[in-house]
Write a structure and sequence with these properties.
The complex is a heterodimer of chains A (about 160) and B (about 220). With about 160 residues, chain A is an alpha+beta fold. Chain A is about 15% helix and about 35% strand. In chain A, strands 3-9-6-7 form a four-stranded mixed β-sheet, with no helix packed on it. Chain B is an alpha/beta fold and about 220 residues long. Classes of the chains: A alpha+beta (about 160), B alpha/beta (about 220). The interface of A and B includes residues 128, 131 and 163 of A.
């Protein structure tokens, strides 16, 4: 009686283990690239020019020549893969940012750029929002160009979720 | 004896509650103080963002975005903005057509484009006002008739001729389900054409697709 009962208990346990092992062996490949936001949270202090608040400590220093993801709705959804700028022949500045959609869903983003002069004053009005369509786990590029000529010394790209 | 224990327990609990209260108070003092709530409601809307009424046509945020894109691209064009002598252009809606299904005052587009381009060009391009040619003619006639003096810049043999002129077209593709969901693709094309040889020296376009349940009326 006891032997039968033990056997009866063992069968489902063994079956479960076999199923679990089979599950472990299933080589499901996750879509790449995968993101890890812990590295972004532990970000290093800004290098290069920053916007500092009038009252020291009242706001975080905002790095310039960078991308600021200003919308809490997407801070853990997209990663800035790169940003760069180039001085054009006529003195204007072209800026570029490549963003990665870390989610399994298509995202709509909007980006705009502040172009600042050497005194960190806006050299021209902020650009209009440009809508970007980021496919799941895909890169999306944003680019724009200043119109104020050599006056532009730095830039700040802002990104929010598309509305 | 038991009473003493009770008293001691009571005082222990009170001390714990006090410490907890103090901790909460201190923690409260340590918050950033940001009042992170929505602002006072207003009927003003941000022209750069989709507003309360959202349809499937061209809206203010589209106009701002497309004009911004066109202005920056035009100023990056060496023919238009890099010539030693600033070229003269006409930017108005005379040759800008609306073939789309949306009713729209096309001047809202070309006016903003002309103004924004003139601000940003800052002398690199000269703008000829052909829309108000009659206004110029009247003043020229008064000066030549001796009814007014010649102004501060003197007389010219003729009004300025233009080198380039804006043309363009708004087109659309509409789809609608039986349940009333509407989808619209819009494409807006801008061209700048040489008024002597007919060559298009610059072109760009802006497009979008929107879908919605509500049937918003554009006036």
């Amino acid at each position: 009686m006891n032997g039968k009962s033990t056997f009866g208990t063992l069968v489902p346990v063994v079956a479960l283990l076999a199923f679990a092992l089979a599950g472990c062996q299933h080589a499901r490949v996750a879509p790449a690239p995968q993101c890890d936001f812990r590295a972004i949270k532990a970000k290093a202090p800004a290098q290069g020019p920053v916007l500092v608040p009038l009252v020291p400590g009242s706001a975080e220093a905002m790095p310039l020549n960078a991308v600021n993801i200003m919308d809490a709705a997407i801070t853990n959804k997209i990663v800035v893969q790169s940003t760069n700028a180039r001085r054009e022949a006529n003195g204007d500045v072209s800026v570029f940012a490549r963003l990665l959609n870390c989610t399994d869903f298509a995202l709509q983003l909007e980006a705009r750029t502040h172009f600042l002069d050497g005194a960190q004053i806006d050299a021209e009005p902020v650009t209009a929002w440009t809508r970007l369509h980021a496919t799941a786990h895909g890169f999306v590029a944003y680019t724009t160009r200043s119109t104020a000529g050599p006056a532009v010394e730095s830039y700040l790209i802002e990104v929010r979720e598309g509305r | 004896m038991l009473g003493d224990i009770g008293d001691r327990r009571g005082s222990g609990i009170s001390a714990f509650a006090l410490a907890l209260g103090a901790a909460v108070l201190v923690a409260g003092c340590q918050t950033t103080g940001v009042q992170n709530v929505a602002g006072t409601p207003t009927n003003y809307q941000d022209t750069r963002t989709a507003g309360l009424v959202r349809g499937t046509g061209i809206e203010s945020q589209d106009i701002k975005s497309m004009v911004d894109k066109m202005v920056r691209h035009m100023l990056a064009n060496p023919t238009l903005a890099g010539a030693a002598e600033p070229p003269r252009v006409i930017v108005d809606s005379a040759y800008f057509e609306n073939q789309s299904s949306q009713r729209i005052d096309k001047d809202v587009l070309t006016d903003r484009l002309a103004t924004q381009l003139q601000i940003s060009a800052n002398g690199r391009i000269l703008f000829v006002n052909r829309e108000r040619a009659d206004m110029v003619e009247k003043e020229r006639a008064l000066k030549r008739a001796g009814k007014t003096d010649t102004g501060t810049v003197g007389l010219t043999q003729a009004v300025a001729g233009a080198d380039y002129r804006l043309s363009g077209r708004i087109t659309s593709l509409d789809q609608r389900t039986r349940s009333g969901v509407q989808q619209r693709y819009m494409n807006i094309v801008f061209r700048m054409t040489d008024l002597e040889n007919g060559i298009t020296v610059w072109a760009n376009q802006y497009d979008f697709k929107k879908a919605g349940q509500d049937d918003v009326v554009y006036r």
